[in-house]
Design goal:
Blueprint lengths: L23 E4 L2 E2 L9 H4 L8 E5 L2 E6 L1 H8 L5 E4 L4 E4 L1 E2 L5 H7 L3 E2 L11 H13 L1 H5 L3 E6 L12 H5 L7 E5 L4 E4 L1 H7 L11 E5 L10 E6 H13 L3 H4 L2 H11 L2 E9 L1 H13 L5 E7 H6 L14 E9 L34 H14 L2 E6 L2 H17 L8 E4 L5 H10 L2 E4 L3 H4 L1 H8 L2 H4 L5 H6 L5 E2 L10 H10 L16 H7 L2 H6 L17 E4 L16 E6 L2 E4 L23
Parallel strand pairs: 1-5, 2-6, 7-14, 8-9, 9-10, 14-15, 15-16, 16-17, 17-18, 18-19, 19-20
Antiparallel strand pairs: 1-3, 3-4, 6-21, 10-11, 11-13, 12-13, 21-22, 22-23
Length: 597
């Protein structure tokens, strides 16, 4: 078990709530309390000297202050004195946006990720890994052969696998290779047949079936690559084709992965109501080891609002918080909706290609209105600046129509947000949650191919938010990337690309501000800042022990920090103390999957 603590102030040092000895007293390390409330570090300021000790009792922080005082007031015959041995103690990390069920999927199917998370750099390796999955225990039970994580920007030739490539995996079984963005994918000929995609199939609204031989009438022969709404049926069928017993373990695998990166609160960021039902059944069978916040897909929630049951309170570690809108696609996949054209459009699309919206304006507005009317928190996937503009218009209109309220609407990703749009977020109270890891994973791709130099340097513009005194958060969006807390922090501080370029030095933030983005600011985003996000008396003992303090080490050293221990409400959840998975009630897993990031 680890120790936790909060910054010492005159009001907090000394006796906390409760009586009797503490279970554990942490000492002997660098304690980063993140106290002082959400917001930029330079505005809230430092909060006194670092405390020497933190006492934990009944899952909460009972004391923060001097070690001698902690020993005198909180030590008993059974109290564990936990010597941090120079390591750092921080509040447990809070995931502002991710897909914990999708993380479990990532842990289950073929791993097609490129370096540094994987080793896929060419199509032959994709074929080999898919064949290996097909021959494995889970693959043999699966209707589809499926893998996740390839990135065309990092494949030889910078092109997607095609139906002909994936026919080398199998001609008898459908095959799906999912792009790392989870907005595109490629299927083999059998997959196209199962999906009933042919030259006679029109592109669906909000999506695209890429074509090979365009002389085949009326629309051209599909080449296997599918975008957005054309891709969703493929991912849905492929994931539902995984055996129910394997899908039922997605949550357990996802929670274990998140805990290993220091997260104590995680998110399922785009659940269907059926998935929410399965998650509730799992939580009812056994209290979850981490807190899970669920957002239901807006279109699904509006059909049956009584099933959402949004609440600020957790039941066995689970709560529904609101709804998720999905307004555009992926910049790295060049499907995000931009105000100005892409530097290099994909395929044979013209020089005026700007991507495309996922929802018509009136539909998006109705979803925001529904969120406000039902008291659901609204989060919206917006990567391109034209999609961000659509969100701003919808929130402006819905806010005028509704009574004023503290809604904490969230713009998810905000990759290409303009400075004018960050200012509009400030004015409207929209919290930007940046996918800052894009600076590393796709920074070079944006700079050279997708956006060009002028726009690429301002992706994930946390610097603009800080300059305005705004609360912002940063996320990993797993399974799009590994749920790595240290990668979230490092990417904000250094903004280094794969090739070592600093992508927009003016948007770099301090280590302290980066830490706040996944602790107290993330707690604020969820409306949980009174209970989580900092080490202060009375708060939950959600803690993480790291090999060094990312708030104080040089930015280049953050990536080398390791997670030593993760503690949820005073109980160690990583390294795992017990390997008993969450029990799976009968029928759970029938719908448990996720397919949108």
């Amino acid at each position: 078990m680890s120790e936790g603590f909060a910054p010492e102030t005159d009001a907090e040092a000394g006796t906390g709530a409760g009586s009797g000895p503490a279970e554990v007293i942490f000492h002997g390390g660098e304690i980063e309390t993140v106290a002082g409330g959400p917001g930029p570090r330079e505005i809230v300021g430092e909060v006194g000297a670092r405390p020497e000790a933190v006492a934990v009792k009944d899952g909460r922080i009972a004391f923060v202050g001097d070690l001698d005082e902690a020993l005198a007031q909180w030590r008993g015959p059974t109290t564990l004195l936990y010597d941090l041995a120079g390591r750092a103690l921080l509040p447990g990390f809070i995931d502002p946006h991710g897909h914990v069920v999708g993380t479990g999927l990532q842990e289950t199917i073929a791993d097609l990720l490129p370096e540094p998370d994987g080793d896929v750099g060419d199509i032959d390796t994709i074929v080999r890994k898919l064949r290996r999955f097909a021959d494995g225990e889970v693959g043999r039970r699966s209707e589809w052969i499926v893998g996740f994580g390839y990135d065309d920007a990092l494949l030889d030739g910078e092109s997607h696998p095609t139906r002909e490539d994936l026919d080398r995996v199998s001609m008898e079984r459908p095959v799906l290779a999912i792009h790392q963005s989870f907005h595109l994918g490629a299927v083999n000929s059998k997959g196209l047949e199962v999906l009933e995609y042919s030259a006679a199939t029109k592109d669906p609204k909000g999506g695209r079936i890429r074509r090979g031989d365009e002389s085949v009438l009326p629309f051209g022969e599909p080449d296997g690559v599918l975008e957005e709404t054309a891709f969703l049926p493929a991912s849905g069928r492929a994931i539902m084709g995984i055996a129910e017993q394997d899908r039922a373990r997605f949550l357990d695998k996802g929670l274990k992965a998140a805990a290993s990166y220091g997260f104590t609160t995680v998110q399922e960021g785009a659940a269907e109501l059926a998935v929410l039902g399965d998650l509730r059944a799992l939580a009812a069978a056994k209290a979850l080891p981490l807190d899970v916040v669920v957002y239901v897909k807006a279109a699904d929630a509006i059909k049956a609002p009584h099933l959402v049951e949004a609440s600020a309170e957790y039941l066995n570690g689970l709560r529904a918080a609101g709804i998720k809108l999905h307004l555009d696609g992926s910049p790295q996949g060049r499907t995000a909706w931009l105000r100005k054209p892409y530097k290099t459009p994909p395929g044979d699309l013209g020089d005026d290609y700007c991507g495309y919206p996922t929802l018509e304006e009136e539909v998006a507005l109705d979803q925001v209105r529904a969120g406000f009317a039902h008291g659901w928190q609204v989060i919206a996937h917006v990567n391109g600046d034209e999609a961000i503009a659509q969100l701003i218009r919808c929130v402006q209109t819905a806010t005028k129509e509704a009574r004023p309220a503290d809604r904490r609407t969230v713009g998810i990703h905000c990759q290409t947000a303009g400075e004018d749009q960050i200012e509009e977020f400030r004015r409207l109270g929209i919290i930007p949650s940046f996918f800052s890891m894009h600076t590393f994973y796709w920074g070079d791709w944006y700079y050279e191919t997708v956006l060009g130099e002028e726009r690429a340097v301002d992706i994930s513009p946390a610097g603009w938010a800080l300059a305005r005194g705004m609360v912002y958060t940063s996320h990993h969006d797993a399974p799009v990337a590994r749920p790595s807390s240290l990668a979230i922090l490092s990417s904000q501080v250094t903004r280094k690309t794969r090739k070592g370029k600093t992508l927009g030095k003016h948007q770099c933030v301090s280590g302290a501000d980066a830490v706040r983005s996944i602790t107290i600011n993330a707690a604020y985003q969820y409306g949980e800042e009174a209970d989580k996000g900092s080490i202060e008396v009375g708060k939950l003992a959600d803690l993480v022990i790291l090999s060094a303090n990312p708030a104080t080490v040089p930015g280049e050293a953050i990536a080398e920090i390791t997670v030593e221990e993760t503690i949820k409400a005073g109980r160690t959840v990583f390294p795992p103390v017990e390997e008993t998975p969450v029990p799976v009630p009968p029928g759970v897993g029938a719908k448990l999957f996720t397919h949108h990031c």
